[in-house]
Amino acid sequence: MKFLFDLFPVIVFFAAYKLAGGGDKGGSCIVTPDTPITQDPILLATGLAIVATLLQVGWLLFRRKKVDGMLWVSLAIVTVFGGATLVLRDPTFIQWKPTILYWAFSAVFLLSPLFLHRPLVQAMLEEKISLPPKIWGRLNASWAAFFAFMGAVNLAAVHALSCNDWVNFKFYGFTGLMFLFVMGQALFLARYVDVKET
After folding, report:
1. pTM summary value
2. Shortest CA distance to 82 belongs to which of 92, 93, 72?
3. Helix 2-19 and helix 174-189: axis angle, to 10°?
4. Residues near 34 by Cβ (< 8 Å), separated by ≥ 6?
């Protein structure tokens, strides 16, 4: 369920783009300066993705649940880069957003031992599972490397694919890569994990 909650803005972006006729223009994302937001698929999808992320944060605050740092970072980046796309009518900003977000996540994982005095993965999961200290470090490094890789993949996709193909890749490709990575992590952890009693 949490996986779907985390993917909510991505699902909204993809669905809005497709329902608004994304891809009907031959896959391009050329937007004229006077194009209304509601009349262009990429602009509409961007606006709704911002709203979806705001709703995520609002829902958690309303339920008095903790909004984790990653969601705050995501909200800031989607608002800034999505807002730039809407104001300047330039889809490049929203296409760069995943790279900036993934690289920000990578930096957070890399720098977490300096600020938290332990890997971020350990801070997030140590109440649920117990691992040897060196495994926490490896796990943290693998997440940092994965997010750095995802950011680079997005850049390559932006330059190599049409706008329509990039939207498809953003939804199917990134979701698939994330799923495979998480499954790989689960298999790796199965050798070491000692589940804590709750």
Report:
1. 0.85
2. 93
3. 170
4. none
